[in-house]
Structures are given as structure tokens and as C-alpha cells.
Amino acid sequence: MEAVFNAEGEVTAWRDGDEVYTLAGEATAFLDGEIVYSYEDGTVLGWLVDGNYRDLDGDVVAFQSNAQGGPLKPLQQLRPLEPLRALTPLRPLRALEPLRPLFSFEWSSLEWDEWISQ
Known about the structure:
It is a single chain. The chain has one domain. It is mainly beta and 118 residues long. An eight-stranded antiparallel β-barrel has the order 1-2-3-4-5-6-7-8. The relative contact order is 0.27. The mean pLDDT is 94. The chain is built from one helix and eight strands.
């Protein structure tokens, strides 16, 4: 699993293929191409581009270790042990993709937990 880091360099989630998991191993979002959808109701949360998770305003919420572009990244803190994954739920109907904003070099005002639970 690939660690997902927040603006402080802390592991805030995990990604395995097209699935995004909480630190406890619950599937919370999924990818379809670059679009990040919520498992809750299929809403578009944003995009994963060049290793940066971006909100609907184009700001970076979190990043993977291979991220390029976006804001200056903090030092990555030690990774916790990977969790055991819960069963992946059925994917909901997906919302229509909104217009893609210009991507910024700024950190989002949203914390990961706020963004992922929209």
C-alpha cells in the first residue's frame, strides 16, 4: 500500500490501486482515472494528479511520496504499520465530473478528514 501524507508530513491514509483507505483500513474513496470519488455517495472529491490529492478548488489536500508539483512538501514522518483492509464496499453511482480548476501551488484549507468525508 502507498502512504498518503498530509501537509505536516504525517501518514493520513493509504492507497492500494484504485482504493483509498483510512488508517484503520476502511475503504473511504476510489479512483476512476484521475478523479477521486467518495464511497459514501459517489460525489467527486477532487483529483489525484502527479501524486497530489487536489480538492475541487485545485489546492493540494495530501500527497504521495512520488508527488511532483504543487506546494513545497514537508519531510515525511515515519510510516505506521499498514492496516488490515476491511471488505471493499460496492461502488455507488458516480456523480458527474465538475469542471477541472486550474491547479494551484497552495495547500488546501481542508484537512484530509474534512475533505474525504464531504
